[in-house]
Automatic annotation (TrEMBL):
This is Uncharacterized protein. It comes from the Bacteria. The chain crosses the membrane at residues 56-76, 88-109, 121-141, 162-183, 189-210, 217-239, 259-281, 302-322, 334-355. Keywords: Membrane, Transmembrane, Transmembrane helix. Residues 363-522 are annotated as: Disordered. It comes from Pseudonocardia endophytica. Residues 374-415, 422-442, 492-501 have a biased composition (Basic and acidic residues). It holds the Pfam family DUF6350. The keyword Nucleotide-binding does not apply.
Length: 522
C-alpha cells in the first residue's frame, strides 16, 4: 500500500500545475484530479463526457513502475531476501493493493469521468504492479540456483542480446523523432503557439508533451521499422503516406505529411544495425568456439524477445482518441512485431554465426582476441613447465652429479685424506674438523661391474705420508724476511717464494674422468 500512496502523492503536484494552467487551482481539486491521473498512469482507459480516451501517457506509467519496483526491492530485503519464501508474498501484496485501489478509485471519480470496464481496471492495475514488483524482487534476490544453472549458456546470452536490441530500437526511435522535430520545427512551433497562447496554457501544454514523450519515441520506432503511424484514416510511414487531419498537438506536428524520398528508406539501417549489435553481443557472450546451434539460438531468441516487447509497447502506446477524425491512434503492433523480427533477427543470426559457417565454408584460422591469445600463451607455458618438471624428476639427480664440478682446489683435495669411516679436512679458518667420508657409488659400465672408487694413498691410521693424521700441512712454515724497500726487492721476494713452494700434486681423478677413459677404451 505504501507504493500506491507514494505514486498518488507524486501525481498531486502535477495536477496542481495543470489546474493552475487552466486558471483555476485548489488543493481539493488537485486531489480529485490526481485520482483519474493515477488510473491513467496504470494504463486504465477512462471516458470523459462519454468519449473514450485510450491514448494514455507512458511517462507516468514509467514512474509508477519504478516506485513499485523500489518498494518491492526494499520489502524483500527487509524480510531476508529468500526468493522462495519472500518473493511470493511481496509480489502478491503489491499487486493486490494496486488492484484494490483501482476499484476504489473508479468509484471515486467525478461524475463526468468514468472507467470503461471496472473489472479490466482491477486486472490491469494488479498486473502492472505485479510485474513491477517481480522486477524489483529479482533485482534484489536474483534467480533461484537451479534456474540460474538452467539458464547458463545460450539463454543467458539471449537475455543480454535482448537488452541490446531494445536499447537499439529505442535509439532508432529517438533519432527519428529528433529528425522530425528538426525538419518540421516551424510547424511544431506554430502548433504549440496555437494550442497555448498564454503562459499558463504553455505550461500545461508543456507538461502534456513531456508526459507523452515516450509515446512519441515508440511512434518513431514504429516509423523506423516501416509500419509507421496511423491517425484516424491517415497513414504515415517511410514507404506510404496518406495524409489526413492531425490533432493540434506539438508532437503530432513532427509527423511528415509529404511523400518521403527514396533515400528515406535508409532509415531501415537503424534497426538493422541494432540487429548486428545483438548478434555480436551473443557471439561474444558465448565465445567464437561455441557451437553454431547455440549462437543461432541465442541470436534468434534475443531478436524474438525484442520484437515481442516492441509489439506490446506499440499496442499500449496507441488507443482511442475520443472519437472523431483522429480516432484511433494506432502504431500497428503486429506490423512492428513482424518488422522487428525480420530486421533484427536476420542480421543478428548472421553476425552471431558468421557468413562462412552459414554458407558451409570452414573459417580460416585467425589469431583470435587478445584474451584468447593470452590464454593460449599461459597454457603453452604450463605445458612446458610440466614437461621440464617431469624430465628433471627422471634424470635430474644423475645430470646434476655429472654437470656439477667438485668444489675446492686441487690443493684442498690433496689435504683431504680418507680412512675407514672418517676423513680429516683443513678448515678455511685454520681449524681442522672431521667430516664423514661419503663414498659415492660409481656408475655401472656397459661391459662389466662397476669398479670401487680408489682411495688416496694413506697410512693405516689415516695419516698422510708426511706425518700423522692431525699433523701440519705438507707446506713448511717460513719466517718472514726483511720488508722490501723497492719494487725490485718485492719482485725478487715473490720469485723466491714461488721457487720454495712444492709443486701441487696431480688432481684426483673423478668418476666422470674414469667413465670417459672407459668409453675411450671401448
Amino acid at each position: 500500500m505504501g507504493a500506491v500512496l507514494v505514486g498518488y502523492a507524486l501525481l498531486v503536484p502535477v495536477a496542481v500545475l495543470l489546474l493552475m494552467s487552466g486558471g483555476s487551482g485548489s488543493f481539493d481539486g488537485a486531489f480529485a484530479v490526481a485520482v483519474p491521473m493515477w488510473l491513467a498512469a496504470h494504463q486504465i482507459p477512462v471516458e470523459v463526457d462519454g468519449r473514450a480516451l485510450g491514448v494514455l501517457p507512458l511517462l507516468p506509467t514509467a514512474v509508477v513502475v519504478t516506485v513499485v519496483a523500489v518498494a518491492a526491492n526494499w520489502s524483500v530485503r527487509r524480510l531476508g531476501c529468500r526468493i522462495r519464501h519472500d518473493a511470493g508474498p511481496v509480489v502478491a501484496s503489491q499487486a493486490g493493493a494496486a488492484a484494490a485501489v483501482a476499484v476504489l478509485a473508479g468509484a471515486l471519480l467525478p461524475g463526468d469521468v468514468s472507467v470503461t470496464t471496472p473489472w479490466a481496471s482491477m486486472v490491469g492495475a494488479g498486473l502492472l504492479a505485479g510485474l513491477a514488483a517481480g522486477v524489483g524482487v529479482l533485482r534484489a534476490c536474483g534467480l533461484p540456483p537451479e534456474w540460474s544453472r538452467r539458464l547458463d549458456g545460450w539463454p543467458r546470452a539471449a537475455s543480454s542480446g535482448a537488452r541490446i536490441g531494445a536499447a537499439g530500437l529505442l535509439l532508432s526511435g529517438t533519432l527519428v523523432l529528433l529528425l522530425g522535430l528538426a525538419v518540421r520545427a516551424g510547424t511544431v512551433a506554430g502548433s504549440f503557439a496555437g494550442l497555448a497562447p498564454g503562459v499558463g496554457e504553455s505550461l500545461g501544454a508543456l507538461l502534456l508533451a513531456v508526459g507523452y514523450l515516450p509515446n512519441a519515441l515508440v511512434a518513431g520506432t514504429a516509423w523506423s521499422l516501416g509500419p509507421g503511424v496511423a491517425i484516424g484514416a491517415a497513414q504515415y510511414g517511410p514507404f506510404d503516406v496518406q495524409a489526413g487531419p492531425l490533432p493540434p498537438f506539438p508532437l503530432f506536428a513532427a509527423v511528415p505529411t509529404e511523400a518521403v524520398p527514396l533515400w528515406g528508406a535508409l532509415v531501415l539501417l537503424l534497426p538493422v544495425g541494432a540487429g548486428v549489435a545483438v548478434g555480436l553481443v551473443c557471439r561474444r557472450a558465448l565465445g567464437a568456439t561455441a557451437p553454431v546451434r547455440d549462437r543461432a539460438s541465442a541470436a534468434g531468441s534475443a531478436a524474438g524477445a525484442t520484437a515481442v516487447g516492441a509489439g506490446i509497447v506499440a499496442a499500449v502506446a496507441g488507443g482511442s482518441l475520443a472519437g472523431g477524425p483522429y480516432d484511433p491512434v494506432s502504431l500497428s503492433p503486429v506490423g512492428v512485431l513482424l518488422a522487428a523480427l525480420v530486421l533484427l533477427g536476420i542480421p543478428a543470426t548472421i553476425a552471431a554465426v558468421g557468413i562462412d559457417e552459414l554458407l558451409g565454408r570452414r573459417p580460416q584460422a585467425t589469431r583470435g582476441s587478445a584474451a584468447e591469445r593470452a590464454a593460449a600463451r599461459r597454457e603453452g607455458r604450463s605445458r612446458d613447465d610440466a614437461r621440464s618438471t617431469g624430465s628433471d624428476r627422471r634424470t635430474g639427480p644423475a645430470r646434476r652429479e655429472r654437470s656439477t664440478p667438485e668444489r675446492g682446489t686441487s690443493r684442498d683435495r690433496s689435504r683431504t685424506t680418507s680412512g675407514d669411516e672418517t676423513g680429516i679436512r683443513d678448515d678455511p679458518a685454520g681449524e681442522d674438523r672431521e667430516a664423514p667420508a661419503r663414498d659415492r657409488p660409481s656408475r655401472p659400465s656397459s661391459d662389466g661391474p662397476s669398479r670401487p672408487r680408489k682411495r688416496d694413498a694413506a697410512t693405516p691410521n689415516g695419516s698422510s705420508p708426511g706425518g700423522t693424521g692431525r699433523g701440519p700441512s705438507s707446506r713448511t712454515e717460513r719466517e718472514p724476511g726483511p720488508r722490501p724497500r723497492t719494487v725490485g726487492d718485492l719482485v725478487a721476494q715473490k720469485d723466491r717464494e714461488h721457487a720454495d713452494d712444492p709443486p701441487d700434486p696431480a688432481p684426483e681423478q673423478t668418476d666422470t674422468g674414469r667413465d670417459e677413459e672407459d668409453d675411450a677404451e671401448r
